[in-house]
Design brief:
The protein is of the alpha/beta class. 47% of the residues lie in helices and 15% in strands. The longest helix is centred in the C-terminal third of the chain and has 23 residues. It binds nicotinamide-adenine-dinucleotide and magnesium ion.
């Protein structure tokens, strides 16, 4: 029996992984459920899954959570605050951790799980973008496993021999990262000036949280994923190519020296990657409908429109600059997307604000986690200031 902690249990990834866990009560148990502020949703999940521990990240909500768990007649213990989240991710109540918090807020708990040697099911791509080498070191030191659940990286993991091999020794020439193209594929900059948050969040293929939905609309999601692929698989920026594939059935591909190209296909449903990562190296039912290739028709592939969707090149730029540049990129993106979702920044200004923030802060070698947390905060302040001065 695997005891699984789900950090971000009330989110889209949280719902998908709980659905897979519920299908296999003989193999998996949701032993820890954690969320940000939605106490009622968290308690409802506790009623269904009966975890040992529920954690609410907002410390002010501890009493509310405890009272509601007691009122519901549950034996689930309550804890609150970021330290409680880190303790839960590294503690004895779980052997696997689903890192499904959105944004930099997930960094510390992801690192805590890695250091403690858990099986880390990594959805929180922002933590690997911010702190890739530190996260890999933590996984190594902890002696656990990192299994990517971002669908593209899970696909690449499946197409590589043995997870994270030496790419040159394995004969890998390139990684082809597929992108759906998002809701605005085919549009030009002039079409995007007055985009609303709801339009940006209406993804044609995936039903996801609002932050990653906006990232998909700007192509920053793919940019973050290029950086994620660099760290997870040791591929150079030149070895990672983005290909737009609107059907979202081919989740990514690996090209080998002999000309073979291996792909992983499946319906666009995160439960496949989550079931793979939960049960690896075994395979289990994920509740996902079988792929019907005849019904799905032609598969298209095209180059990304890098002039319209400038965030992709900004991410390559940060990756090539190296050091703290990806942390700055991620922080500026979080500020920009947050402001766009609140209605205070136009869609096209997201890329401009990120570029201005990257221009303002020179990349430095990473000195450690405190350094990265400091750079993250500085970049957020710079982005906020530039937003007020130049973009609002
Ligand atoms: P979501 O917005 O639906 O859910 C986010 C979860 O994180 C919620 O449970 C929320 O309570 C929690 N959370 C938010 N801020 C927090 C904080 N400060 N402290 C503690 N918890 C906090 O997001 P999502 O779509 O499920 O995405 C989660 C992560 O997975 C993101 O990093 C995203 O990029 C990644 N991801 C998602 C998908 C997808 O299909 N949804 C696919 C690939 C990767
Ligand atoms: Mg993805």
């Amino acid at each position: 029996m695997r005891n699984v902690a789900i950090l971000g249990a009330t989110g889209s990834i949280g719902a998908s992984v709980l659905d897979v866990i519920a299908r296999h009560p003989d193999r998996f148990r949701a032993s820890v459920l954690a969320a940000h502020r939605k106490v009622d949703e968290l308690v409802a999940l506790c009623l269904r899954f009966k975890p040992d521990l529920a954690v609410i990240a907002d410390a002010a909500l501890e009493t509310a959570l405890r009272d509601k768990l007691v009122a519901a007649g549950l034996a689930t213990r309550a804890a609150a605050g970021m330290q409680a989240l880190n303790d839960a991710a590294s503690g004895e109540l779980c052997d696997s951790v689903v890192a499904a918090i959105v944004g930099a807020a997930g960094l510390e708990s992801t690192l805590a799980a890695a250091r403690a040697g858990k099986r880390l099911l990594l959805a929180n791509k922002e933590s690997v973008v911010m702190a890739g080498p530190l996260l890999l070191d933590a996984v190594h030191a902890g002696g656990g496993e990192l299994i990517p659940v971002d669908s593209e990286h899970n696909a690449i993991f499946q197409c590589l021999p043995g997870g994270r091999p030496d790419l040159a020794a394995a004969g890998v020439r390139r990684i082809l990262l597929t992108a759906s193209g998002g809701p605005f594929r085919g549009k030009k900059r002039a079409d995007l000036a007055a985009i609303t948050p709801d339009q940006a969040c209406a993804h044609p293929k995936w039903n996801m949280g609002r932050k990653i939905s906006v990232d998909s609309a700007t192509l920053m999601n793919k940019g973050l994923e290029v950086i994620e692929a660099h760290w997870l698989f040791g591929a150079t920026p030149m070895q990672i190519e983005v290909v737009v594939h609107p059907q979202s059935l081919v989740h990514s591909l690996v090209e080998y020296a002999d000309g073979s190209v291996l792909a992983q296909l499946g319906n666009p449903d995160m439960r496949t990657a989550l079931a793979h990562a939960l049960a690896w190296p075994e395979r289990i039912d994920a509740g996902v409908a079988p792929l019907d290739l005849v019904k799905s028709g032609a598969l298209q592939f095209e180059a990304p429109d890098r002039d319209t969707f400038r965030c992709l090149d900004l991410a390559y730029r940060a990756l090539v600059e190296g050091g703290t540049a990806p942390t700055v990129l991620n922080a500026a993106n979080e500020v920009a997307v947050g402001a766009f979702l609140e209605g205070s920044l136009p869609f096209l200004a997201i890329a401009e604000l990120i570029e201005a923030t990257l221009d303002a802060i020179s990349a430095e070698p990473v000195a450690g986690i405190e350094h990265l947390v400091h750079v993250d905060l500085t970049a957020r302040n710079v982005a906020q200031r530039k937003m007020r001065q130049e973009f609002c």
